Amino acid sequence: MPKRDREATRARLLEAARLRFAREGYDATSVRDIAKDSGVDATLIFRYFGSKKRLFDEATAAHAPPGLLDGPAEELVARMVRAVVLHDWTEYGGEHPLVAMLRSSAHEDTRQRIREEVCDTYVTALRDLAGGEKTEDAELRAELLSAWLVGIGILRSVVATPELAKAEAGDLAPHVAAVATALLGRPMSGLPKDGGSEG
């Protein structure tokens, strides 16, 4: 098989796996389902990825969006909201890849990945804004804000509660700014105040 065809097939398998894992979790997703969705033989999954577990790890790999930690400190929370809550995650079934991992969190290694994803990227950055190690409860306040943002994302994309599902950036802005400012102990800004979802 030509290299271009192999790359296209591999990409198709990853796309199908992202959708399946996001919707159904690891245990409820079979290699045959992914292969069928991709229109290929299931043996190709093992050829390209080695195992279902390695396919899951690659399909649900979520790195911090470029530029998330760059820019004014007072706009970090706004950038996180855009990345986690308002971003268009179509390739993951419309949900942040973290949700796929949450659906598979019966596995300890997946729980560890979730901890690393949330703590290494989001909690650490928020803790630094809250005073870093100089403030005794900075870590707790950073984790509280992270939990709140993840909860918003889940209610919006998975549960689809009526108001959050239709809320735009401008609807969320004053509330996000108020809670973030209170928890971090410094003014937060950056979300547009005139509506308009960003993806």
From TrEMBL:
The keyword Ribosomal protein does not apply. It comes from the Bacteria. Residues 7-67 form the HTH tetR-type domain. InterPro entries: Homeodomain-like_sf, HTH-type_TetR-like_transc_reg, HTH_TetR, Tet_transcr_reg_TetR-rel_C_sf, TetR_C_16. PROSITE patterns: HTH_TETR_2. Keywords: DNA-binding. One of its GO terms (molecular function) is transcription cis-regulatory region binding. SUPFAM superfamilies: Homeodomain-like (SSF46689), Tetracyclin repressor-like, C-terminal domain (SSF48498). It holds the Pfam family TetR_C_16. Residues 30-49 bind DNA. This is DNA-binding transcriptional regulator, AcrR family. It comes from Nonomuraea solani. The lineage of its organism: Bacteria, Bacillati, Actinomycetota, Actinomycetes, Streptosporangiales.
